[in-house]
Structure prediction request, 280 residues.
Amino acid sequence: SAEIIDGKHIAQEMREQLKDRIKQLKEVTPGLAVILIGDNQASKTYVSMKQKACENLGIYSKLIKLPDTVTESALLDIIQQLNNDQTIHGILVQLPLPDHIGETAVIEAIDPSKDVDGFHPINIGRLQAGGEAFYPCTPNGIMKMLEFHHIDPKGKHAVVVGRSNIVGKPMGQLLLNESATVTYCHSKTSDLKTYTKQADIIIAAVGIRNLITADHIKDGAVVIDVGMNRDDNGKLCGDVDFEQCRQKASAITPVPGGVGPMTITMLLFNTVESAERFSR
Ligand code: NAD
Prediction:
């Protein structure tokens, strides 16, 4: 049965390393500004988790709470101020935004050198072209998990299920950059199994509970589960039927305790990296 990829443990190790890097920065304290708009409960939870994680590491976090009536231009002004604020090295606008605010305009207003989510087109382009950039946290965290377990994507067939801008697409690009052969599957893919069964590495980033069963994977596959769903009892679960797939896979991430803990860690990682770049 499969080796369990323990995201909590890897995240903890990475956070210890970040503590050392923060110490080395001496007179500079890494600063993260988080903009939270409106009253979305999930957003509030994510933001408070991010703030707590900053606090634990000694990263300064500045929370800017705005009512969902805030205008787009007022929001853009605030982002502009943060772009010019020398105590801030990372700016994050918690999504989703209210309908009257354009997501593209907001993302593009963030200085790419402070875009620690890696959503700005400049960072997306640099991810594709190669070069110094911020990579989106969830897929970058998955790359760190693979590295930790000495799973080298080179020459492997990686099948990414899901093609969102925040997970699926950058995931495929990061794997390609490490010389995997990448296949993307999505909601319009006919006969998902045909593809997933060929995967040496499968990344499930969909949001459908038990979408990936033992029938979808080949013996010895590495199975990474990004999904965050609720089962009938309200318990957190992923896109993968974990109990079935762990019998067949060579390595697998659980939910919870897999990809999730890595995502926030990579946000801290990007913020520290940004502070290092600014202090050079
Ligand atoms: P999304 O809704 O933006 O994208 C879902 C993708 O799944 C789409 O590209 C769609 O084409 C594809 N899809 C839908 N139905 C499909 C099907 N039947 N077969 C194959 N593909 C199908 O979601 P997202 O933001 O990419 O997130 C995906 C999942 O990962 C969600 O459950 C989300 O909660 C979770 N997530 C977890 C973390 C984490 O840190 N653990 C971070 C981000 C997202």
In short: Residues 259-279 form the longest helix (21 residues).
